[in-house]
From TrEMBL, chain A:
Homodimers and heterodimers. Residues 124-224 form the PB1 domain. This is Auxin-responsive protein. It holds the Pfam family AUX_IAA. Residues 70-80 have a biased composition (Basic and acidic residues). Its main location: nucleus. SUPFAM superfamilies: CAD & PB1 domains. The keyword Repressor applies. Belongs to the Aux/IAA family. GO terms for cellular component: nucleus. It is found in: Nucleus.
Automatic annotation (TrEMBL), chain B:
GO terms for biological process: auxin-activated signaling pathway; pollen maturation; SCF-dependent proteasomal ubiquitin-dependent protein catabolic process. Residues 10-51 form the F-box domain. The keyword Metal-binding does not apply. It comes from Escallonia herrerae. It is found in: Nucleus. This is F-box domain-containing protein. Gene3D superfamilies: 1.20.1280.50, Ribonuclease Inhibitor.
């Protein structure tokens, strides 16, 4: 019997050693008996998987279909196990689901589905943060923080990084003087505000943290002068301060 | 005189007494094959009967052979039914069994069902017919409602079992209900000792079932309703716990808040197994402080599970005092605990033998498990994000760390992003004692990401090293080669699960030819076809069952097989009317399930199931 024969062969030294890479070709050890090692074999299993994906994809997209078709075309050419186009193995596209995979019981699946929909830590609450005078905006995930203090620290870190990078324009250089920035941040002139669900600009810190996270749509760190409604000229004066 | 003659002079009572020591049904099956007299003695003395496939035999014949049966275990649907691959009305009805036992006057005390359809009518009949019923275990079953359970409860109260129940407490006597797919509003009775609801999808319940425990019920040993989604009457729960001093195992559901838990623990410091409910709370509160002191009194807890969400990180430390003695920890439903908190918890759990956890513990967390839990025997790492691509939360590194750190490891279920051959080879060297090895890569055909090779070598190392391996689940990119290794080395293998693997019929043939002890083979989405199916038809009579779906077998081959092997039921499950009477034999069969049977085709098969 073929298997028994192989057993005898495999009881040699190198043959029994299980190591990375295959000693010979894909499933074909008939060649091995003759002392030649043919590398062959297409991954029919993989093809099977792709066909399955084709049939069973619940969310099919052009991209998905294209990927599947491409892989189907590639298969006859690809697949020299000892080399060759190893990188044509692609993971399934995101969101593609095969029935019953991964093999998790329905009960567990439902619990996981529930948890992610009720917003565990997987749900992010990204909001834009603008700071007056900064060259560009940032984004923060409010769910990463548990208190106003944590957020404030994080924002401080975030905007202080502007001082590290190089920058072209003169105006921005002024701003990126670290001490000036820290003055701004630490002074009472610095007022963080946020736009809430109703579109109103509110002062940060008035409501409980959770309520803030729920209602905040974007953040703006204003200069104090602007916050209390001073004239734009006054604001410009502040900007040009050296 | 030789021993054989001497044995013949043993009175049957002696033989029976000797057979009493044989607990396993396999041992009993073996002794019954020795000779006629042993067969006879054994069959009259067997009280626990295990039927791995309810369609392999009919109840009347079981009862005829084992008239003194008191405990019956039945399994119905194929394993892949757990993953929605089997239509729900495929079969597995328990009613005929209950009817037959009722007619024959069997003194049934314990009924354990897995993946079966249990109707209210069955439960009502069960309740009426078996006054000594003490234990009902239902795992992954379906088809019944609270009316059926109420019937069980109300009818069971007819007999005065108070003394019996208490007397047999250690033997886990009682009404054990492990339910699925039901809305429980159960009227339970005096001698109920165990109510255990596990892993079921239960509709929102009205919450008054707990109040149905009568005041006179003081015999509870185990109460587990963790899977229920609805609220329970907390006052009733607290009173129940207070009066059931034998309560050893208590698993609450998500709706039970922390302050109730604290009160319960005060009443039940003798608990051995605890499942918490919802854990969200403010760490600075009075309740939390009371919980801390209550937990400190629970020095017997060895097993912990629950929904320990950690919105307030500082609340988990309340549990640290019991961690030192824990042998079993199941945090696989606690998906909101941050991995750093999990790691801190694990640091305290040096006696763990069993750990079920989510992959958000990460490789780093598994490293901590490896260095802390030196007694670990069973590890299950479940996926926390199955709907998206997911970040690489656990990889081969975690598994390698565990294998290096936990010398007693013998059972693993590991869902991971990726796996390498090198890792599997290392794991095989570190842990030659695996009995169960189940690996699941989230992408079912992912190769070794370092070498881009299939995982054949890795799994080959596992089967070669783990000589006692009984159960194996494969995943990742796999060719026929891995099956060659399995056929050659996996001599003790009883169950093999295959998905998206192999290149040709050779793969399946290697397994069928090589694995002499194979009992269950389940294959999906793999290119195995008629040649493999028909090569050794006699093999299937040595196995319990074979499942093949989305493979290459054709209708014609299935018909051929069915014709050659009258003692197999070859079922074609034809859900979408893809096959009909006029179908060509060359048409591929989407789902085929075959199993050995002594009684021919079943009569309860639905329309879409054809027994060829």
């Amino acid at each position: 019997m073929e298997v028994g024969q192989k057993r005898v062969n495999m009881l040699g030294e190198d043959e029994t050693e299980l190591r990375l890479g295959l000693p010979g070709g894909g499933g074909d050890h008939v060649a091995a008996k003759n002392g030649t090692h043919t590398a062959k074999g297409s991954y029919n299993g993989k093809r099977g998987f792709n066909e399955t994906m084709d049939l069973k994809l619940k969310l099919s997209s052009k991209e998905t279909a294209a990927a599947t078709v491409d892989e189907g075309k590639d298969l006859p050419k690809e697949r020299n196990l000892l080399g060759g186009s190893g990188d044509s193995v692609k993971p399934p596209p995101a969101k593609a689901q095969v029935v019953g995979w991964p093999p998790v019981r329905s009960f567990r699946r439902n619990i996981l589905a529930q948890k992610s929909s009720t917003g565990g830590h997987e749900d992010a609450a990204f909001v834009k943060v603008s700071m007056d005078g900064a060259p560009y905006l940032r984004k923060v995930d409010l769910k990463m923080y548990k208190s106003y203090q944590e957020l404030s620290d994080a924002l401080g870190n975030m905007f202080s990084s502007f001082t590290i990078g190089t920058c072209g324009s003169q105006g921005m250089k002024d701003f990126m003087n670290e001490s000036k920035l820290m003055d701004l941040l630490n002074s009472s002139d610095y007022v963080p505000s946020y736009e809430d669900k109703d579109g109103d600009w509110m002062h940060v810190g008035d409501v409980p943290w959770e309520m803030f996270v729920d209602s905040c749509k974007r953040l703006r760190i204003m200069k104090g002068t602007e916050a209390i409604g001073l004239a734009p000229r006054a604001m410009e004066k502040c900007k040009n301060r050296s | 005189m030789c021993l054989a003659y001497m044995m013949n002079y043993f009175p049957e009572e002696v033989l029976e007494h000797v057979f009493d020591f044989l607990a396993s049904h396999r041992d009993r099956n073996a002794v019954s094959l020795v000779c006629q007299s042993w067969y006879r003695v054994e069959r009259f003395s067997r009280e626990k009967v295990f039927i791995g496939n309810c369609y392999a035999i009919i109840p009347e014949r079981v009862i005829a052979r084992f008239p003194r049966v008191r405990s019956l275990t039945l399994k119905g649907k194929p394993h892949f039914a757990d993953f929605n691959l089997v239509p729900s009305d495929w079969g597995g009805f328990v009613l005929p069994w209950i009817e037959a036992m009722a007619r024959s006057g069997v003194n049934l005390e314990e009924l354990r069902l897995k993946r079966m359809v249990v109707s209210d009518e069955s439960l009502e009949l069960l309740a009426r017919s078996f006054p000594n019923l003490r234990s009902l275990v239902l795992v992954s079953c379906e088809g019944f409602t609270t009316d059926g359970l109420a019937a069980i409860a109300s009818n069971c109260s007819v007999t005065p079992l108070g003394e019996l129940a208490i007397g047999d407490a250690d033997a886990m006597v009682g009404l054990i209900l492990v339910l699925a797919m039901i809305t429980p509003k159960v009227a339970l009775t005096l001698f109920l000792m165990e109510l255990d609801l596990q892993e079921n999808e239960v509709e929102d319940c009205r919450g008054q079932w707990l109040s149905c425990f009568p005041d006179s019920c003081t015999s509870l040993v185990s109460l587990n309703f963790a899977c229920l989604k609805g609220e329970v009457n907390l006052a009733a729960l607290e009173r129940l716990v207070a009066r059931n001093h034998n309560l050893r195992s208590l698993r609450l559901n998500h709706a039970v808040p922390l302050d109730a838990l604290q009160k319960i623990l005060m009443q039940a410091p003798q608990l051995v197994d605890l499942g918490t409910g919802s854990y969200v709370h403010d760490p600075d509160s009075d309740t939390y402080n009371k919980l801390k002191s209550a937990v400190q009194k629970c020095t017997s807890i060895r097993s912990l599970s629950g929904f320990l969400e950690d919105v307030a990180p500082r609340c988990l430390p309340a549990i640290y005092p019991i961690c030192l003695n824990l042998t079993s920890l199941n945090l696989s439903y606690a998906s909101l605990i941050h991995s750093s908190e999990l790691i801190k918890l694990i640091h305290h759990c040096s006696q763990l033998q069993r750990l079920w956890i989510l992959d958000c513990i990460g490789d780093k967390g598994l490293g901590v498990v490896a260095s802390t839990c030196k007694e670990l025997q069973e590890l299950r790492v479940f996926p926390s994000d199955i709907y998206g691509v997911g970040s690489a939360v656990v990889t081969e590194e975690g598994l390698v760390a565990i294998s290096a750190g936990c010398p007693k490891l013998n059972s693993i279920l590991y869902f991971c992003q990726q796996m390498t051959n090198a890792a599997l080879i290392t794991v095989a060297k570190n842990c030659p004692n695996f009995i169960r090895f189940r690996l699941c890569t989230l992408n079912p055909t992912i190769p070794d990401p370092v070498t881009m090779q299939p995982l054949d070598e890795g799994f080959g190392a596992i089967v070669q090293s783990c000589k006692g391996l009984k159960r194996l689940s494969l995943s990742g990119l796999l060719t026929d080669q891995v099956f060659l290794y399995i056929g050659m080395y996996a001599e003790q293998l009883e169950m093999l699960s295959v998905a998206f693997a192999g290149n040709s019929d050779k793969g399946m043939l290697y397994v069928l030819n090589g694995c002499k002890k194979l009992k269950k083979l389940e294959i999906r989405d793999s290119p195995f076809g008629n040649v493999a199916l028909l090569a050794d038809v006699g093999k299937y009579e040595t196995m319990r069952s074979l499942w093949m779906s989305s493979c290459e077998v054709t209708l014609g081959a299935c018909k051929t097989l069915a014709k050659k092997m009258p003692r197999l039921n070859v079922e074609v499950i034809n859900e979408n009317d893809l096959i009909d009477a006029s179908s060509d034999d060359r048409q591929k069969v989407e789902k085929m399930y075959l199993y050995r049977t002594l009684v021919g085709p079943r009569e309860d098969a639905p329309e879409f199931v054809w027994t060829l």
